[in-house]
Input
Amino acid sequence: MLTKEQIAQRIAREVKDGQYINLGIGIPTLVANYIPENLSVVLQSENGLLGIGPFPSEDEVDADLINAGKQTISVLPGSALFHSADSFAMIRGGHVHLTILGAMEVSENGDIANWKIPGKMVKGMGGAMDLVASADNIIVAMQHCSKDGQSKLLPDCTLPITGIRCVRKIVSDLAVLEVAPRGGFVLKERAPGVSVEEIKAKTAGKLIIEGEIPEMTFD
Amino acid sequence: MIDKTVKSAQEAVADIPSDSTLMMGGFGLCGIPENCIQALLEKDIKGLTIISNNAGVDDFGIGLLLQKRMVKKMISSYVGENAEFERQLLSGELEVDLIPQGTLAERVRAGGAGIPAFFTPAGVGTEVAEGKETREFDGKLYLMESWLRADFSIVKAWKGDHSGNLVFKGTARNFNPIMATAGKICIAEVEELVADGELDPNEIHTPGIFVQRIFQGLRYEKRIEKRTVTH
Output
């Protein structure tokens, strides 16, 4: 099983030179720590910043510089600031190349649910619906099963959905999977020590297994 | 030039009545109009509809207006971080309309720009789409969303001049410039009010035409929700 850091590390390998990337809250935020230094990429924060820098030092903290998770951050040489309508023009207009976000459930046709649990307090979707409706390439970081062992990779989402047919790739604690254009989770890689049988047993949606499935390696 | 200055937050919000619709800039607690919120708290009004990306925290920002039960309805994209909000929502005292953040931003922009409706992909196939027209463009489905406008929009800028021109700082810009355009009356509070001519016209973010009242705010707390530092 992968740790949260390893999920982030594995997702970072999907990042390509020259991309503008939006990272969601949680595991996706950690991806920034593993992007190879030889790649030139720009992180977008939907509250109005291109070029998210590292967390500031204690004496550089600026209340007027936060990320979408409301954490204090810094800017970089070449950063740009803008208002919220411009920010979502970047997102809906297809100018952001890669979106990485968390999910509560993903269906075998690429639907994602990550904003609402009926009966529990509803906090709102924030920018998630705009992001998933717009990005060409959406990678989801998630746990394969819920705490009580229920699969979160399903034939259909049971929770209210955030967007339809949008997820391309999933990196869970057990596996890397791609959503096939005609539906189904295509198993691409296994987490170290996790068998194909275990992934089969823990994937409720249609699982497609073609040939040998390699095991991920980490430095 | 037209002088938009008023003396104080109290004077700026003096004519805001009960049951009015207010837009308030800010993302989380970043870039919120602290002085106007304080001045509204001193007023005996209620039934407000507030359009704001977030709803503050229990003891700061819009959370203070909620504590005093001045708010009837919130129109927001994300309202976590606020226990009093949750209590009022679950007890039915407060209505809430949750909108995707980009749709919220574009509805506000459209309101200020005189565009009554537009189509967006955000929310297609979700409960956000219920009751809304969908239409296909180039093989993809989009939802029709309508403009948002307000009786008053209340924004916070870094610097402003007497003509109402505004400059924002950092990510405190967020919803402020678009909300400035979408209120019948826009009230701008600024950290630094300067004479006309002191701001470079090349670097104005919000031209003064959108601003009706401006004043220099006092004692900004600028509370930080999540102080994260590297050591």
In short: Chain B has a mean pLDDT of 96. The helical segments of chain B are 9-13, 34-41, 62-67, 83-90, 101-113, 176-182. Chain B touches chain A through 56 residues (CB under 8 Å). The first helix of chain B runs from residue 9 to 13.
